[in-house]
Amino acid sequence: MKKKSYTFISDPFSVSPSIETTAAGNLFNCDKDITIELPDRDTIKEFQSGRSAVVSFRDTTGRIINMGTQEMPATLSISPSLNSATLSIKCRMIHSPL
Predict the structure, then answer these.
(1) Per residue in 53-87, is it b (16+ CB within 10 Å) or e — as a string?
(2) Does 85 have pLDDT greater than 90?
């Protein structure tokens, strides 16, 4: 069953988008693999083949960082392992999320 939003608990990580020059112009590459707590089986199944979304992070100061937009959403997938999972984010943005 698809939910409107999901919350995942992660290990500490940093966000550092890099600029790429493409045929469409300069884009910020925001690709990131993040270790998260193992979600329930239904959530893993829903994200197994990839899902488009806008990803929101809250940093240690409480500031919200968004990756992806309604027009250019990020693609998310979850790869489970024994006690944790990897949330893979593939995202290109016109403006830096920072």
Answers:
(1) bebebeeeeeeeeebbeeeeebebbbebeeeebeb
(2) yes
pLDDT (mean) for 24-50: 91
pLDDT in tens, 3-34: 788 888 888 888 889 999 988 789 999 999 99
Contacts of 38 (CB under 8 A, 6+ apart): 44, 80, 81, 83, 84, 85
Q: What is the pTM of this model?
A: 0.84
- Alpha-carbon distance 20 to 15, whole Å? 16
- Amino acid identity, position 70: Q
Q: Which two tokens stand for residue 44?
A: 């893993």
Backbone angles phi, psi at 78, to 5 degrees: -120, 130
